[in-house]
Design brief:
The structure is a single chain. The chain folds into two domains: 13-46 and 191-271 and 393-449, FAD/NAD(P)-binding domain; 138-182 and 276-339 and 350-388, Cholesterol Oxidase, domain 2, CATH 3.30.410. Helices cover 26% and strands 23% of the residues. It contains twelve helices and 19 strands. The chain has helices at 9-12, 24-33, 55-61, 73-76, 113-117, 123-132, 145-156, 192-200, 253-263, 312-317, 354-374, 431-449, and strands at residues 16-20, 38-42, 80-86, 89-94, 162-163, 204-206, 209-221, 224-236, 239-244, 247-250, 276-283, 297-301, 304-308, 328-335, 341-344, 347-350, 382-383, 387-388, 414-416. Strands 3, 4, 5, 11, 12, 13, 14, 17 and 18 form a nine-stranded mixed beta sheet that branches. It has a five-stranded parallel beta sheet with strand order 6-2-1-10-19, covered by helices on one side. It has a three-stranded antiparallel beta sheet with strand order 7-8-9. Helix 2 (24-33) runs parallel beside helix 8 (192-200) and helix 7 (145-156) crosses helix 11. 51% of the residues are buried. Bound molecules: flavin-adenine dinucleotide and iron/sulfur cluster (SF4).
């Protein structure tokens, strides 16, 4: 049933909920709400399609003018959206079913220290997820020699490398190394699994439906003036529509949700983090790390991690990377950046603080040291394009919210279930933590509003 359309006898008893976005937070929130509400998932993008192009052919075209600007990737791969926030940094996210989880390298880490410090214990949610999502480190037995050698080098340097847990069914993984371009074999888990389960429980999925704003009305609760959502205003194939709902759950991601809230008259905090990524690369002939498990292990430093990673954005668009793809070996630095940045209806403003730049420089030195021990001259290393794909933090939870997981600037029946709620940058993969958080948010909605 479309929101606003005629309800069936069974649905008449249920309140209507819209879940905005079908990524890490949205898909699980929709699944947990389906059955208790009549749920519609509103997704701005289309059905996700992995990139099917021939990388070998594209490699030969890299010197043409088509490959000057990372934003052009959308012409080849429509699900991936790249936004330039400064001359030196681009943001990457997905606009399709499954959200950015469909572009992920499937790392599954529990990163809830900051939430625990605020008294938010998601232990039960993580335990439930561990039974539903296939997480393993089985990839270790498949590593290429160069990865084994890098791991030993990190051990020899006392860097304590750890295997990365992955959401992958390794019986089906072809080790193509193209996780960030979408998995063509279906081996990689992404949140479309939860989305299908939500639909199986009766949720309605509306793709190409972009939410512009939440429609609000004034009301009185407990003698106090308050705001309440009456539904959402969407743009659907060029037409604007109002979809009524008694519950609105925003899970449009760290960039989408604050923009919707701003268009609804609700300001979020200027605390955007993005976890910037910078690769330090070297030419290692026939290392073939483009066909390796991405991020197979990681080393943890102060506010950063380092992990082997073939960076497709740099390979395609950065002139310093014009080497044969089988000959590039790269170490990614993922930074836990300062919480300083703005998202509103006009766009994103985000830069690096002096501390961020210093941390990146320190981590780059560690990468060069690893390469040196590995047998590469540090002067011959080259840098990648600074890109970031973990936006969040503009509606940070404090643990002191009057209602659990419900920031007090939100109207009574509007919840957020995505990375916007994270109190601080993780500098680590956030999907598992966002899913645990969204699951709890859905439980709160069921308890309060169903
Ligand atoms: C290349 C890459 C690799 C990554 N690898 C990993 C990894 O291995 N492990 C990990 O933990 N994390 C990884 N991440 C990060 C992770 O994917 C994201 O942090 C996570 O998916 C964010 O979840 P979310 O629910 O906040 O937003 P998203 O998953 O981005 O979902 C937001 C959804 O909302 C939709 N949307 C946006 N605006 C609107 C609107 N106005 N109306 C309707 N719908 C809208 C979008 O289309 C999208 O479906 C990676 C990120 C990138 C870019
Ligand atoms: S490496 Fe494995 S999980 Fe990643 S895209 Fe290829 S087949 Fe899928």
């Amino acid at each position: 049933m479309l929101p606003g359309g005629p309800a069936t006898a069974g649905e008449q008893a249920l309140k209507r909920a819209v879940v905005v976005g079908s990524g890490a937070g949205g898909a699980i929130a929709a699944r947990e709400l389906a059955g208790a509400f009549s749920v519609s998932v509103l997704e701005a993008g289309r059905e996700f399609q992995p990139f099917h192009g021939d990388i070998g052919r594209i490699e030969r075209l890299r010197s043409t003018r088509l490959f000057l600007e990372p934003r052009m990737i959308q012409l080849m791969f429509p699900a991936m959206k790249v936004t330039r926030v400064s001359e030196h940094m681009v943001l990457v996210h997905a606009l399709a079913t499954g959200g950015t989880t469909a572009l992920a390298t499937a790392n599954a880490l529990r990163c809830d220290e900051a939430l625990l410090q605020r008294g938010i214990d998601l232990g039960n949610e993580f335990a439930a997820l561990s039974t539903e999502v296939p997480i393993s480190t089985e990839h270790e037995s498949r590593w290429r020699p160069v990865t084994r050698e890098l791991f030993s080098t990190c051990e020899a340097l006392g860097l304590n490398p750890a295997l990365t847990p992955k959401m992958v069914d390794y019986a089906r993984c072809t080790q193509c190394g193209r996780c960030v371009l979408g998995c063509r074999s279906g081996a990689k888990w992404d949140s479309r699994v939860f989305l299908r389960q939500a639909v199986g429980r009766g949720a309605q999925l509306l793709t190409q439906t972009k939410v512009e704003r939440v429609a609000l009305e004034e009301t009185v609760i407990g003698g106090h003036a308050a705001q309440r959502a009456t539904g959402v205003v969407v743009r659907q194939r060029g037409r604007r529509r109002f979809l009524p709902a008694e519950l609105v759950v925003l899970a449009a991601g760290g960039l989408g949700t604050p923009a919707i809230l701003d268009r609804s008259g609700i300001r979020t905090e200027d605390r955007l983090f993005v976890d910037p990524v910078l690769c330090v690369a070297a030419r290692v002939d026939t290392g073939r790390t483009d066909q390796e498990v991405p991020m197979p292990f990681f080393v943890e430093g102060c506010d950063y991690i380092i992990s082997p990673y073939f960076d497709y954005l740099s390979f395609l668009f950065n002139p310093a990377w014009r080497h044969p793809r089988h000959d590039i070996t790269a170490l990614m630095i993922k930074l836990a950046d300062s919480q300083a940045g703005t998202v509103d209806r006009h766009g994103v403003r985000k830069g690096l603080s002096a501390r961020d730049k210093q941390t990146l420089a320190t981590a780059a030195d560690v990468c060069r040291e690893i390469f040196k021990r590995f047998g590469v001259r540090p002067e011959s290393t080259f840098l990648g394009t600074l890109n970031a794909g973990h936006p969040g933090g503009t509606l940070p939870l404090t643990g002191a919210e009057p209602a659990p997981l419900h920031p007090d600037r939100l109207p009574v029946n509007v919840y957020v279930a995505d990375a916007s709620l994270l109190p601080q940058s993780l500098g680590k993969p956030p999907i598992l933590t966002i899913m645990a958080l969204a699951r709890r948010v859905a439980a709160e909605c069921r308890a309060k509003l169903a």
